[in-house]
Design goal:
The chain is of the alpha/beta class. It has a single domain, classed as Rossmann fold (3-Layer(aba) Sandwich), CATH 3.40.50.
Amino acid sequence: MTERMETEAKWTVRGKYVMITGATSGIGLAAAKALAARGAILGIVARNPAKAEEAVARIREAAEGRDVTVDVFLADMASQSSIRRAAEDILGRWPRIDVLVNNAGAMFVTRKLTDDGQEMTWAVNHLGPFLLTKLLLDRLKESVSARVITTASHGHKMAKKGIRFDDLTAKRLYSFPQSLLGGANFRYGETKLANILFTAELAKRLEGTGVSAYSFDPGLVSTNFNQDNGWLARMTMAVMRLFSRTPEKGAETLVWLADSDAVSGRSGGYYADLEEALPAASARDAEAAKRLWEVSELQTRSFAR
């Protein structure tokens, strides 16, 4: 009887509600297909309705006749008001959220500001996931156990100086030459560092709630990432694609973190290739993680309705 109860208590994604941002292509779409095959109920957050519907069709096609539920919620992850509307929609339609996957990401070669006054890469890669997670956190806590998984990157190691709290809109950072190691790349690395620090601080704040937090490195993946940033970015990505893994391979650790019982109770870690990994020293700075949380609250609170 005891053995049977322990088996039943093991974590599995089957029958659980999984919310994924950035699921219309690449790693997110590959993960959505894999999680649907494991019996998850899916909600995808997308900016483009047509691409969202196409993604739903591809997820269902991959299910090969199995009954798959996929809800679509529309949001621009660069817009805080859009994220708030999507969160209201999610909370109004689903009484339970078991897994939240913060996967949407972007890199902007030239410095742009959002309508909220935030730099675009920072807004999409860090503030968007931060805000969406906070808005859905109470619902996640209502589950017996739940997980928040955030897509980071080995690219966080480019942010050798840590988070530049004195240059949060990256005005100085984007003044670096726009080469392969220019300001845009450093900014992207900074946002990926923020993903890891956010996860560590989130895990600390969630102790005792039953909600766990994880970040992971998908590796160098062949996707349509960075295709809207001009010919140099496209050429760079074309070269990198020769050495890249498939989206399915890049999604393996994400799917494992969402479905495996092996990581239960191991909140706050950074993972790569199905095992816990050691991020850069700047990603293990507890004081920076705490400061980032406080700054992020200010950057998102200003635009609360």
